[in-house]
Amino acid sequence: MVKPRQPVKLSKASRLAATSAAAKRAAATATPKEKHVKKAELLPTCVDCGIDISNDVKALQCELCPTDAWKCAHCLGLSDEMYDFLAASQEHGLHWFCGKCEKIIVEGSGSPCIKLEGTVQKLVDKSHDIELQVSAVTGNVEQALMDVNSKLEQLMNEKIKDIEQKLLDKVQSIEQTLQRKVENDLLEKIDGRLRKIEDSPAVIEDIQLRLEHKVDQLRNNMDEPVAVAVQGLIQEDKAEEMEIEHRKKNVIVHGVSESEAEASEDRISDDLAVLAAMFQEVKVDDIQVESVVRLGKKASDPVQNPRPMKLVLNSEENKINLLKNAKNLREKREGGWSKVFIHQDLTPKQREARKPLVAELKERKANGEKDLTIFRGKIVKKRSY
To answer: Range(s) for CATH 3.30.70.1820 in the chain?
Structure first.
């Protein structure tokens, strides 16, 4: 009978090994005839067919019976392949009980089962008590280690602070000593020079004249570069203001395909037609374009890599309206408008000042921030309309 449960006795291999070892010790002191007889007496036999259960016989031992009963695989009805498969599988361990013990186990009323159940329950209770004790001891040890660690950290911090304070005091003392030494040496030198000057009035007058002349030279040399620098800054500011004023009605449009027409007049007409359609998409039909020009060198494939366009509009107010409504182009999936981007025409100084803001904006968007834009030199949240 094959019973798939956890074994409670030694395995077949362990018992056979013990039997084999005992047979070897007995054979070492016996005569050849006695050795053969004793070997047969030491080996267990199958309870059905009576065959000796040696190392090369596949058999199972009763795991409960105190009489050490064995039964070979042949009498169990197991082929060698099936026995090897089950014996090698950890999931299907082989267990066998003789008829008497099997009846006790099946009925569950025998004293061995009752004792076994009691023993198992005692082991379970004892295991639970041990777990509780180990848990309590572990908690106490962990708390003690935490307390020791806390005290060590406190002592280390106090020691480090004490050493730092002593080092600071020492450094300050050295600095004060050096400062006094330098001051004393300097005062002695100045005092010596003053005494020499006081003894010679002519020397004092000559030194005074030379100092006044030197001061005048320094003032003249300094005033001229400063005046030139200030004048240059003023001129740069005026030039920048003029450039901003000149560009106040301009916008730059990216992403509009270039016309393939040969004549420049035809290409401009095609661009104006596309712009009129774009103005209609963003609902600014009343905008008028005074001039349009493509910026940069024409690419080998102008359709795929179009140059940006600079538009000069008829008023600054129309420029502001166009920029305000142009953000809706990215939401237009039809007509290719989602690739079009419009911004105001910035001066070189304005573009240079905008670069770090653009980099910061990209980084903040990459970190998950949303609805950000650049407005008047700052990154701000977009207004919700």
So the answer is: 248-345
**Predicted pLDDT at 66:** 63
Q: Which residue in the block uniquely carries the two structure tokens 């639970």?
A: 128
Question: For the residues of 71-133, what is the DSSP string, one character each?
Answer: EEHHHHT--HHHHHHHHH-SSS---B--HHHHHHHHH--SHHHHHHHHHHHHHHHHHHHHHHH
CATH of 12-107, one of 2.40.110.10, 3.40.50.1000, 3.40.50.300, 3.30.40.10: 3.30.40.10
Say whether pLDDT at 2 is over 50.
no
pLDDT at 137: 87
Q: Which of 118, 123, 103, 97 is nearest to 9 (CA)?
A: 97
Residue extent(s) of CATH 3.30.40.10 domains in the chain: 12-107
Q: Which residues of 288-323 are buried (b: 16+ CB within 10 A; e: fewer)?
A: ebeebebeeeeeeeeeeebbbbbbbbeeeebbebbe
State which amino acid sits at residue 298. Answer: K
What is the distance between the alpha carbons of residues 212 and 209, in angstroms, rounded to a whole number?
Answer: 5
C-alpha count within 13 angstroms, C-beta hemisphere, residue 122: 6
Higher pLDDT, 299 or 197: 299
pLDDT number for residue 120: 75
Quick one: which of 283, 385, 268 has its CA closest to 332? 283
Considering the segment(s) 248-345 as one domain, its CATH architecture is 2-Layer Sandwich (3.30)
Give the burial class of 136: count Cβ atoms within 10 A of its Cβ; 0-12 exposed, 13-18 middle, 19 or more buried: exposed
**DSSP three-state, residue 310:** strand
Task: Specify whether the CB–CB gap between 60 and 69 falls below 8 A.
Answer: no
pTM: 0.40
| Residue 70 near residue 47 (C-beta atoms within 8 A) | yes
Edge-to-edge strand list for the sheet holding 289-294:
289-294, 309-313, 250-254, 341-344
On average, the pLDDT of the chain sits at: 77
Quote the pLDDT of residue 224. Answer: 63
Q: CB count, 10 Å around CB of 134?
A: 10
pLDDT in tens, 243-283: 888 999 999 999 888 888 888 899 899 989 988 988 888 88
